[in-house]
Amino acid sequence: MLTAPDLRICFAGDSYVAGTGDPACLGWVGRVTAAAVDRGHRLTAYNLGVRGETSCQVADRLGRELAPRLSAGDDHRVVLAFGVNDTVLVDGRVRVPPTASTEALLRAVDAARPARVLVVGPPAVDDEAQNGRLHSLGEFFAAACADQGVPYVDTFDATVADSTWRREVREGDGFHPGTAGYAALAGVVEAPFLAWLATT
Amino acid sequence: MLTAPDLRICFAGDSYVAGTGDPACLGWVGRVTAAAVDRGHRLTAYNLGVRGETSCQVADRLGRELAPRLSAGDDHRVVLAFGVNDTVLVDGRVRVPPTASTEALLRAVDAARPARVLVVGPPAVDDEAQNGRLHSLGEFFAAACADQGVPYVDTFDATVADSTWRREVREGDGFHPGTAGYAALAGVVEAPFLAWLATT
């Protein structure tokens, strides 16, 4: 590129966005950001991942946290990534049912606009029943994104079948991988993320 | 430690907190956090650095951004680090005079409580007149922190005399270093940061 635009990107979501469990303190967000910088993008990344949050909680705080971060620069982007906490059972019921998760996703997309949005779906965990719910939630999210014309990156199929991801999650807290798992997840997201950055 | 507490730390401040200019996407915050994890701390770090913000702007958003991040865990901490933007001249006047910067610092300390607070002072830039103002602002901050019983880490004296820091800042945008400079700044902060984490 001749004159790289001054990109400001907010990554909003849950503990996977925050990189919980990665002793290298990069997570997938740090890795895909470094990959973009390495390719010449002039980019400021803000990590707005908060542990334990559902889609609704992220959507609730999104607008007020984006405002100070997207007030400068000349290309504003928002990456949304959540869903695992929605599918956790509390007293036998999911914290957020998939229709409500999808409504929250659409609310978050609205809060992010006019910034361009990319949605990264939830990865697999170490519980097959919850994985079934995550697979289903990913389909809800993919359909909603297609309807909105927002690009969607599925991470479930790749992580559920990735032996490194599965082993680190199992040996960790049942949810979060370590450095190798986050590198694997970054590998899933990197190509569609870079392709999205290249769109104008 | 036998049972490591579940530490939640927010780093609130400006572009130096965000790690602007570091192609490794770690900045000094990622590096001191990784050092703490390496020493056995069970720690979730949230980076709330925003480019261009003065002390007043950080203090204004602090309370609402800390709330969702310090609602879980059993040891809450806040690191405050700002000041360089306060000392930038606009139409011949500093954006924020040192007495107002100090009032904003005290307001931020209040917003952070009851979390334990550490203040990291502003580093040197590539402009000697501004460096004079930064040295002076650091003295205001140090005195206010001493008065409040809040630990203060000076970074000015070390960075103004660090040839790697000075060269990377000069060859960069005049304010931000690259990877080696951030590693040097992390080296200044790491020991007092780890000592502060060890206090109960």
Question: Main attributes?
Answer:
homodimer, 200 residues, alpha/beta, Rossmann fold, five-stranded parallel β-sheet, two-stranded antiparallel sheet, 8 helices, 7 strands, globular
Order of helices and strands of chain A: EHHEHEEEHEHEHHH
CATH topology name of chain A, in short, is Rossmann fold
The level-1 CATH class of chain A? Alpha Beta
CATH superfamily of chain A: SGNH hydrolase
Largest sheet data of chain A:
5 strands, parallel
- Across the major sheet of chain A, the strand order is 2-1-3-6-7
Largest interface: A-B, 28 and 27 residues
Helix content of chain A: 40-55%
Total domain modules of chain A:
1
Unreliable runs of chain A: none
CA-CA gap between termini of chain A? 12 Å
Gross CATH architecture of chain A: 3-Layer(aba) Sandwich
How many helices of chain A in DSSP terms? 8
What best-fitting shape of chain A do the alpha-carbon axes yield?
Answer: globular
Class inferred from helices and paired strands of chain A: alpha/beta
- State the total count of DSSP E strands of chain A: 7
Average pLDDT for all residues of chain A = 97
Radius of gyration of chain A: 16 Å
Proportion of residues in β-strands of chain A: 15-25%
Organism (chains A, B): Krasilnikoviella flava
Domain SGNH hydrolase-type esterase (chains A, B): 11-184
Protein name (chains A, B): Lysophospholipase L1
